[in-house]
Structures are given as C-alpha cells and as structure tokens.
Amino acid sequence: MLNERSLTVHQDCDQCPIRHRAVCARCESDELERLEEIKYYRKFEAGQMVIWSGDKMDFVGSVVSGIASLTQTMEDGRTQMVGLLLPSDFVGRPGRLTAAYDVIATTDLVMCCFRKSPFEEMMLRTPHIAQRLLEMTLDELDAAREWMLVLGRKTAREKIASLLAIIARRDASLHMTTRAQDGSVAFELPLTREAMADYLGLTLETVSRQISALKKDGVIVLAGKRHVTVPDLERLMEEAGDDTDGGMLV
Amino acid sequence: MLNERSLTVHQDCDQCPIRHRAVCARCESDELERLEEIKYYRKFEAGQMVIWSGDKMDFVGSVVSGIASLTQTMEDGRTQMVGLLLPSDFVGRPGRLTAAYDVIATTDLVMCCFRKSPFEEMMLRTPHIAQRLLEMTLDELDAAREWMLVLGRKTAREKIASLLAIIARRDASLHMTTRAQDGSVAFELPLTREAMADYLGLTLETVSRQISALKKDGVIVLAGKRHVTVPDLERLMEEAGDDTDGGMLV
DNA sequence: AACTTACTTTGACGCAGATCAATTCCGTGG
DNA sequence: CCACGGAATTGATCTGCGTCAAAGTAAGTT
C-alpha cells in the first residue's frame, strides 16, 4: 500500500477527502471530471480487513473517516504496524498489482476509492498526477525512515512520547484537537494499547506502564483511558527525544 | 534522500550505473543526450560525509561503486541507519530542497551525479521519468517497511540473518557473489560490525556475538572477518524468520 | 620486526522490557 | 440496574541485549 500524506482534504465536498484540484492543479478540468466519475465509497467496520497482503489490488483511494493500519505479520504471529492511515491519507500503489501489507480498519472506516485501471490511465495522461504521487510517496518514505529511528533506537518511554506527539501534530493539522488558551492540547487516542504496541514494537503491558509513568510525571493527563491532554507539547517532544522540529510523520 | 532501487546498471558504459534508456525507454533520444551532458562524477573516501542532513541538495545521482549509508542521528549520539546504498542505487529527491538524512560513504565511493535543476526540468518534460521514479520510490518504501518489521519485532539473531540474506540476495542480483555447484553462496561483507549494528538497532558486541553463534551453528562460514559463505540460503532465510519469499529489501 | 591504529571477539554483569498472572475498569446490552 | 466481556492496569519474575572491560587480530607505517 501506498498510504498517508493525502491528496489533502477536499474543499468542495466534505464527504470526499481527495481534493482533485490538489492532485493536479494544472490539468484540464475534464480529466478532473473523469476522476469524479470513477469515484465510489466503501465502508468497513472496526477490525475488518480492508486488504490482505498478497491480494490483488484493484483500487486506490483515500481515507474519509476512521483509521486504518498497515500491518506486517510473521508466521508465528508477531506483528508490526508499518503505517497508520488517518483521514485524508492515500492508499494504493499505482503500477502495482498486489498489496504488500495487510490493511486493517482500526476503527469504523469510510474510504473513497477509484478503480485502479482508469486511475492509472489518467495518471499516464496527466503527468502532474505522477509528480504529485511521487511527492507524496517521498513524504511517506521520510515518515517510514523517521519511524525506523524510533523502532531501532528509542526507549519505550521515548517511543510512547513519539507516538503521542505524532498523533497530536497530525490531529492538529486536521483540526481534531482542542487547543486551550494555556497552550495545552487535547485529543482522543484512536488506538488500543495493543495497536500502539504493534506500532511501537513493544508489548501492550509496556505501553500501559509507560503511559502510566508519563501520567504520573505530568507529561500527559488522562481522562478515561483514551482522552489525552498534553499540557506542554514542548515537554512531550523532549520526552520523545525529538531533534526534528516538526518532521512530518504518519 | 531518495535512494536505492537504481535506475539500473548502464549497459553502454560500465562507468555509469544509470542506464538512461531504462529511465525512460520511450523518450526522445535527444532528452537522453541532454541527460548525458549534465552528468559528472564524484569520488568519496570511506568515512566521508556525502551529504549532511538539512543541507541543500543540488544534485541527484546514483552509486557507481562502493557503499553509502543513510543515517539518522539523535542529539545524544544514538544513530540509526535507515538505508543502504549499493552500486546502482539512486540518491536524491526530485522536488526537494534539502537532504533529510546524513549520507555517509561506508567504503570508498564513486557516484554519478546530475545537477538537480536540469534533471528536474527534464523530469517535467518527460513524464516517464517521474513515473519511473515513482516506481522506484514505492520499492524503497516497501523496503523501509519491511525493515520496520525487522527493527520492531525480530530478535538479534533474526536481524543478523535478515541482513546477511539481504546482502546475499542483492549481491547475487549484481553478480557479485560466488555461487558454488553445491548451491552455497559466498560474498564479501561490506560493513563493519558497528555499521551492521547501526542498521539493525543493536550494539556491535551483540552483532559480533550473534555472528559467532551463526558460525558455530553452521548457518554461515567465515573466512577472515569479512568473507562470508552461506552453505544453505534456505536455512539462512529460515533463521531470518522470513515469510517473504524474496521480498526486495535494500 | 616492532609499533600503531582500527576492528573484532569474548567475558561478566545489570537492566529495560518481555512474559505470566491477577485484578480492575468501563462501555454495552439485557 | 446489573452483568457481561473486552480493554487496561498492575504486580512478580525472567531474560535478551546493553554496558563495561579486557584481550585478540590484522593491515599499514616507520
């Protein structure tokens, strides 16, 4: 799967996250119309498989609402999440026949899809789309590599802080956070502890313990299990060991 | 940096790994000539920095000979290699101003470069190049994500086996391995123990210990510190915990 | 041949995070 | 309202890998 770093939120239609004009601001408008014609929606329930690794992929698309995850699994069951698809993120691989990872609906999910072959044909006709997709894919590659540093070198506490910082940043850019006058940021955790563990290469117990520790140290405040308030985003990012000012991740 | 998954080895010129006709088999030949015109070579010694993270990138190119690594570093010095550039791999990010990672010559290195702006102009003129680069970048993304599984979920022994399997496979595709009649494969390890550790998210001591263990168990045979013989590639891949038949990595 | 320097191996020990095991929390439906 | 079940917490213990330290190896230099 290609994923994330959307074609950005549709301005004209709050149902569909793909702002076609962002894909290709310089294309002839009839191409854009054609894109509109081959569009359709798919819904998934939390926990449902969207795509199995190795399956034939006959569509590309993007997330309208909900969260999906890209996951790799070893025969013995160990799993690693390799990407998180938030609303506006792109899924699919122009030019590829089969899916490389499992895609799972983490929450209830709505996707806006395009049949792959017409999309690809259009890509061939309109060069700016390939250029835009290249741009997006490079962003994803950056994100994946930033995540490699997290997985390979960070401590459990730093990993949790990194993930929270990323979600806070991403949610902020989608205006999903509450930002109080004192600068604190609040958001809803979209992942179970287990999903976080799979993303971070940890166990769910370690995730739980580190969240408790961050809470005890006042880095975050929890209301219920899922509602997180970050009093000081700077502090959280220090905890994450982040040099990267605001490197875009996921 | 974009990297790896080359524009493949030049057929006409063994000096230059970029087979321009592979980039764009369908372009007009004068475009290819133009690419030839803006080409130049750069040499680096082992250990030299090719590019600093954050620096302005004014060229793209590919590795002719030697090995380079893409590395991320935290302020406290922890480092994670996020990519390995072998001969024929591509470096550079069309459409990006600055480098996202350090690029370091792991061995003596020769690169074939193109000044970035003419290359980009050409990319705009010849759509197949953007499509080819998209293809390559998607491959890299797959590789990065496969590596996330290695970093997040595999044991030290599996990590080492994974790395050796990848190098063996990569070298084989470049005809750099010796393949004996009994099916064993032999190659030269291009990395120090420390570099391997940085790639695998381990310490050099653990790398050394696991290599000794694999040797003791007959999975590999060492002649000197660097020359590796793999009697049974299947066995090595089992040790790597590899489901992926032959997923391209690095 | 002796010295230097960088790389590698091996050992002893400690700790971060995994594993195993009980509760507790909380949302949902009867 | 209670009861049920998945999610989360917390505790006790184990272990793989990191850390610190020392010694071995190989290639280049004088």
UniProtKB/TrEMBL annotation, chains A, B:
UniProt-listed PROSITE patterns: CNMP_BINDING_3 (PS50042), HTH_CRP_1 (PS00042), HTH_CRP_2 (PS51063)
Residues in Cyclic nucleotide-binding domain copies: 23-140
A Pfam cross-reference name: HTH_Crp_2
Keywords assigned: DNA-binding, Transcription, Transcription regulation
MF terms (GO), sorted A to Z: DNA binding; DNA-binding transcription factor activity
SUPFAM superfamilies noted in UniProt: cAMP-binding domain-like, Winged helix' DNA-binding domain
Gene Ontology CC entries for this record: cytosol
Start and end residues of each HTH crp-type domain: 154-234
Gene3D superfamilies given in the database record: Jelly Rolls (2.60.120.10), Winged helix-like DNA-binding domain superfamily/Winged helix DNA-binding domain (1.10.10.10)
Matching InterPro entries: cNMP-bd_dom (IPR000595), cNMP-bd_dom_sf (IPR018490), Env_Response_Regulators (IPR050397), HTH_CRP (IPR012318), RmlC-like_jellyroll (IPR014710), Tscrpt_reg_HTH_Crp-type_CS (IPR018335), WH-like_DNA-bd_sf (IPR036388), WH_DNA-bd_sf (IPR036390)
Record-linked CDD domains: CAP_ED, HTH_CRP
Protein name: Crp/Fnr family transcriptional regulator
Organism: Sagittula salina
